[in-house]
Amino acid sequence: MDQTAPVLNGMLARHDPALEGSSAPPVASVIVKQAMTRRRPGAHIVVFANEKGGVGKSTLAFHTAVALAYSGARVLAIDLDRRQCSLSHTLNVRAGTDRALNVGLPSARHLVLERQSGPLLDQEIARIGSGTDFIVIDLPGADSTTARHAIAIANTLVTPVGSSTFDLNALGQTHPVTRQLTRMGNFGCLVSEIRAELLAHSQPVFDWLVLKNRSRTTDRRLEHQASEALSLMATEMNFRVGNGLAERIGFRDLLSYGLTYLDLNLIPGVGRRRTDIEQSIISLLAELELPGFANSGVNVGALPKQRGVMSSGNASAYASALQQHMNRQTD
User: For the domain with range 5-260+272-305, which CATH number is right: 3.40.50.80, 3.40.50.300, 3.90.1300.10, 3.40.720.10?
Assistant: First the structure.
């Protein structure tokens, strides 16, 4: 940390000036001081954040919440993207699928924070999150006061990135020839500033995990270059690098029903059960190194067994439609 501080300080000085001014979100020092006035919840807070959109934040947040629920944990999911509401919508669809099939899908309590501010987020966490083990927060792909507050109160910060230059630039920019880090991106600066303020006030600091997400086997060269760049940034910016979920048609197909591959063990006749994909979801949970999950997580062999879903005509029709939809996929 001490050796990289001068480098980081120089890069932080070149943070986007557009974030300054009366209409910009408060600076990191204000955000941290505000967070310090609120009592931290007993639950472990996992925040999925990246100002770059389309990197899979909501998909990862959903799979994390469901995998934690499968482990028996009590989970609250908070959607801060009040325009898209992807996480909350998918959990609502999941509840509808569960009612139609009557299989008892493990899930999370969830809400959309319609009126947004740091204190209002804290208020909802205190009101609804009491008694939960984990709080999963999905941030929009934009900077805001509430997003900054969520990062400041996180225990684990998860930043998904793809292999494209645009995705990596949100964290930092590297020289195309030397591959050296030339400057930190706006999001990378923001996270570093909040972490520095937390340390300055002797506050608990989040574990920052950057996940290589939506990887494709056809992009091996780009994947390799992205891995090299992230490895360099990780040393300079002090984050861990892990693997998210691969780019698969099946993930998108199942999300339209609020399902994950972990659920196929409960629903007979719906698609092909893929233990390798189930394991990738469980490995995602292990990557997060959450309390009680660093070396264990969910055991595929211990997943609930199939339950009957044909107890009514509606359930049978829904299961049949779902089965036909899944059997058409080629992934």
Answer: 3.40.50.300
